[in-house]
């Protein structure tokens, strides 16, 4: 998703002589979203989509120094279930982000992601909880819901920090090869990024989706009620108990 300033394989610093062109290339890729597909899900929580691109990041020779963003979105309502900036993208960190969404919205029936190793713990968890065929993996470009979300998140929040970090690096204020610089970057900016991400996610939940003329939060709420009515009509009401 971004042009790294460090090569992971060789650990060589890339001298970007034309940073503006590099930024334009990134923006072009971010805006190059596939055409919308007709992939309406049956109910909320039917399929949770997630992926973790390192949009706001500076790669170093140490994997732990990545500043990345993790997100989950409900496939039916487009409600964001979690959106968080973290200091790394290890499997455990992604699982913790996933659990924050589970705590608020429950365990999804299915999860979709790409084939990155950072999703191994999430895959193990969902397969244990929901059984086989509940973890769908594939190319991130085929995950249309999350691709569209990341375009909007980048434009609404992350592009500011991305351009700011590039500016600081080009002016010599930030050296991505120095661990002290990266630690300071995390300390100063991570909370602010998360604050803006949370504010943006709350606004997203209440904004009207043009195709359905309703907000993600409204779709989620009505879908949960519809799920409950269907389960009761199918004779599954015993698990809810009886109120007299």
UniProtKB/TrEMBL annotation:
One of its GO terms (biological process) is DNA integration. InterPro entries: Integrase_cat-core (IPR001584), Integrase_dom_put (IPR058913), RNaseH-like_sf (IPR012337), RNaseH_sf (IPR036397). Residues 40-224 form the Integrase catalytic domain. GO terms for molecular function: nucleic acid binding. Gene3D superfamilies: Ribonuclease H-like superfamily/Ribonuclease H. This is Integrase catalytic domain-containing protein. It comes from Mytilus galloprovincialis.
């Amino acid at each position: 998703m971004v042009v790294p300033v460090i090569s992971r394989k060789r650990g060589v610093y890339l001298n970007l002589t034309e940073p503006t062109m590099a930024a334009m290339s990134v923006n072009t890729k971010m805006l190059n979203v596939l055409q919308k597909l007709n992939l309406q899900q049956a109910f909320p929580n039917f399929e949770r989509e997630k992926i973790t691109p390192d949009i706001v990041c500076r790669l170093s020779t140490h994997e732990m120094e990545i500043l990345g963003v993790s997100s989950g979105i409900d496939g039916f309502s487009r409600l964001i279930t979690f959106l968080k900036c973290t200091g790394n993208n290890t499997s455990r960190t992604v699982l913790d982000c996933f659990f924050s969404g589970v705590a608020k919205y429950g365990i999804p029936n299915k999860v979709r992601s790409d084939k990155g190793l950072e999703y191994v713990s999430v895959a193990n968890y969902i397969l244990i909880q929901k059984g086989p065929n509940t973890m769908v993996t594939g190319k991130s470009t085929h995950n249309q819901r999350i691709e569209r979300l990341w375009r909007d998140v980048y434009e609404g929040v992350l592009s500011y920090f991305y351009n700011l970090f590039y500016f600081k690096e080009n002016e010599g204020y930030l050296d991505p090869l120095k661990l002290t610089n990266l630690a300071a970057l995390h300390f100063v900016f991570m909370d602010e990024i998360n604050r803006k991400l949370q504010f943006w996610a709350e606004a997203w939940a209440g904004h009207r989706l043009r195709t359905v003329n309703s907000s993600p939060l409204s779709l989620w709420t009505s879908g949960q009620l519809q799920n409950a009515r269907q389960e009761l009509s199918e004779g599954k009401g015993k698990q809810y108990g009886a109120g007299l």
